[in-house]
Specification:
This is (2Fe-2S)-binding protein. InterPro entries: 2Fe-2S-bd, 2Fe-2S-bd_dom_sf, 2Fe-2S_ferredoxin-like_sf, 2Fe-2S_ferredoxin-type, Beta-grasp_dom_sf, Diverse_Oxidoreductases. The protein has about 170 residues and is α/β, with parallel strands linked by helices. Helices cover about 30% and strands about 15% of the residues. Strands 3-2-1-6-4-5 form a six-stranded mixed sheet, covered by helices on one side.
Length: about 170
């Protein structure tokens, strides 16, 4: 059995894990997905482990600038990656929410909140690459996120607010 170290940068902090096959205490199995590592090993529970098929977007994080469904990515394949979770969006010095998080509050762009972190992370990745997306571009970006509470029209308003303010 080969055990090897991997390094992830999560929310600006570097972590090193040992990975390998089998069930050795403290070693991440090669089959473990990123959402499990984030939730169970780093206690970052914002990304939700919902469908486990990459279909709902609840587990979305930003990896190397792109939104990814963390239930579909093996942790071992994230060696060297820069990952941002919903917990990493707030200003580390002031504790202020990201403007997008605040816009979601201002526009009531959530109901139960279960899918909200994934939708925010997808939207943040879009705004990072395209600060002024059209409604159609927002819709396309969010096409992989599913909200059972049907609050998407508020989501569009929140993303558009931040885009219009250039934040």
């Amino acid at each position: 059995m080969e055990i090897k170290p991997i390094t992830l940068t999560v929310n600006g902090k570097k972590y090193t894990f040992m990975t390998g096959d089998g069930s050795i205490e403290g070693v991440i199995p090669n089959s473990e997905v990123l959402v499990k590592t984030l939730r169970e090993r780093l206690n970052l529970t914002g990304a939700k482990d919902a469908c486990e098929e990459g279909a709902c977007g609840c587990c979305t994080v930003i990896m190397n600038g792109d939104p990814v469904t963390s239930c579909m990515i093996l942790t071992v394949d994230c060696d060297g990656a820069d990952i941002t979770t919903i917990e990493g969006l707030e200003n580390p010095k002031t504790g202020e929410l990201d403007p997008l998080q605040q816009a979601f509050i201002d526009k009531y762009a959530f109901q139960c909140g279960y899918c909200t972190p994934g939708i925010i992370m997808t939207s943040r990745a879009l705004l990072n690459k395209n600060p002024h997306p059209t409604r159609e571009e927002i819709g396309e970006a969010l096409s992989g996120n599913f909200c059972r509470c049907i609050s998407h029209y508020h989501v569009f308003e929140a993303v558009e607010q931040v885009a219009n303010e250039g934040r």
